[in-house]
Amino acid sequence: MQLLKDRIRKDGKIKSGDVLKVDSFLNHQMDIHMFEEIGREFHKRFADSGVNKILTIEASGIGVACVVAQYFGVPVLFAKKNKTKNIAGDVYTAKVMSFTLGREYDIIVSKEFLGAGDRVLLIDDFLANGKAMEGLVELVKVSGATLVGAGVVIEKGFQPGGAALRGKGIRVESLAIVESMDEATGEITFREETA
Ligand code: 5GP
Predict the structure, then answer these.
(1) Mutational pocket test of ligand 1: of 21, 99, 133, 166, the residue with most ligand atoms within 8 Å of the beta carbon
(2) Model's pTM, two decimal places?
(3) pLDDT tens-place string over residues 43-66
(4) For the chain, which terminus, N or C, has the lower number of CB atoms within 10 Å?
């Protein structure tokens, strides 16, 4: 998606540890016009998939997932990061190794809102090592729902998450795949689209 790539080049800030900061339009301040274009594009790509639910993970996936969901006319469910030791009640759980925090945590969703018969599209802002997405995939699996695919706004193609998910047969659609980024020069290159 050219609009997105141009914006990443213009406003993205490369930080140490292979972190790309896009706080001016995606992760802190949110550019709703850009989100609309993102929503339209994901809807185009997954239009024939019978999606009836969007699943994301708190916090940074929620905003974009809501706009995407408007195009599909379906609800958004977000996995909560469980902060207590006790996992109470009727929830599905999965473990996630955090890219940003460097430790493991549980994610949960209520059994009330996910189950057999659901056709789920996963949405997240970034795909790096793929651990957040793998946690969401696990939640879909244990719930008995059908996974339609995953929509990612920015994939860092030099990290292993995308290849790992695609290797499991999961359809991953990323709107911008960063091939390389150089902290010293600020240069960012993108993978050419094949489709
Ligand atoms: P993964 O589990 O794929 O390693 O990391 C995915 C999560 O980590 C995303 O939901 C995102 O919040 C965060 N993340 C990973 N890499 C980056 C990055 O370069 N920039 C930002 N802003 N967030 C990232």
Answers:
(1) 99
(2) 0.96
(3) 999 999 999 999 999 999 999 999
(4) C
Among the listed residues 69, 67, 70, the one whose alpha carbon sits nearest the alpha carbon of residue 25: 67
Q: What angle is formed at CA 58 by the lines to CA 57 and CA 61, rounded to 5 degrees?
A: 65
Q: What is the domain-level CATH number for residue 92?
A: 3.40.50.2020
Alpha carbons 106 and 25: distance in angstroms, whole number: 28
Tell me how far the alpha carbon of residue 63 lies from the centroid of ligand 1, in angstroms: 15
Query: What percent of the chain has pLDDT above 90?
Result: 90
- Domain residues for the domain of 142 are 2-189
Residue 95 lies in a domain: yes
Ligand 1 within 6 A of 129 CB?
A: yes
Q: For residue range 164-195, list pLDDT tens digits in order.
A: 999 999 999 999 999 999 999 999 999 987 55
For the record, the structure tokens of 46 come out as 């997954």
Tell me the CA–centroid distance for residue 23 and ligand 1, in Å.
Answer: 12
In a domain, 160, yes or no: yes
Whether 42 lines ligand 1, by a CB cut-off of 6 Å, is no
Q: Is residue 162 part of a domain?
A: yes
